[in-house]
Amino acid sequence: MWAGEGLSLSVVRLPDGMRLYLANTHLHARYGPEMYHATQLALAGQLLPWVQRVKATGWLALWMRDWNSRVTTDVMMPLQEAVSWQLLNTENSRMDHLFGSGLGWDWEVISQGKLNGHLADAPEAPWSDHEACWVDVELRRGLNGSGP
Question: What domain of life is recorded for the organism (predicted)?
Fold first, then answer.
């Protein structure tokens, strides 16, 4: 997303026929301790029904992007609790987080990191005002479930 805040939700069919939701979102930045806090809470509240719908399918999901909030805040906790997300980028990030979810599946992080980049057609324009997070994960059927 180049501008604005919202949710992009795509479904990818994996080679074995499994489906994976890819959810990309961007919550409004705070610009100070209390500035736009109510806006962030409202945006997270609007995401909650989508998070619950994805959970109800039992499909795998990767939730990513710029949350503009630490994982332990009142903005993020209700979303995490609704789905039992697994935080995948364990390197400390104050705003970008990647979460995996899916009944009966374990997400194993193989490697992770951060990177900066610039637009190909405008090298003076960075992708973002901060580093991006990335993870390389391997999915495994969990011991307590067979996966959908």
Answer: Bacteria
In a domain, 90, yes or no: yes
Do the Cβ atoms of 26 and 6 come closer than 8 Å?
yes
Query: What is the C-alpha to C-alpha distance for residues 130 and 117, in angstroms, rounded to an integer?
Result: 10
Q: How many domains does the chain have?
A: 1
**Confidence label for 1 from pLDDT (cuts 50, 70 and 90):** very low
- Cα–Cα distance list, 122 to 13, 66, 129, 131 (Å): 33, 22, 15, 18
pTM: 0.81
What is the chain's alpha carbon radius of gyration, rounded to the nearest angstrom? 16
In a domain, 113, yes or no: no
Q: Which CATH number belongs to the domain containing residue 40 in this structure?
A: 3.60.10.10
Q: Give the number of other Cβ atoms within 10 Å of residue 9's Cβ.
A: 15
DSSP assignment of 42-74 equals HHHHHHHHHHHHHHHHT-EEEEEEE--S-TTST
For residue 84, give its domain range: 6-103
Bridge-based pairing state of the strands 118-119 and 19-26: unpaired
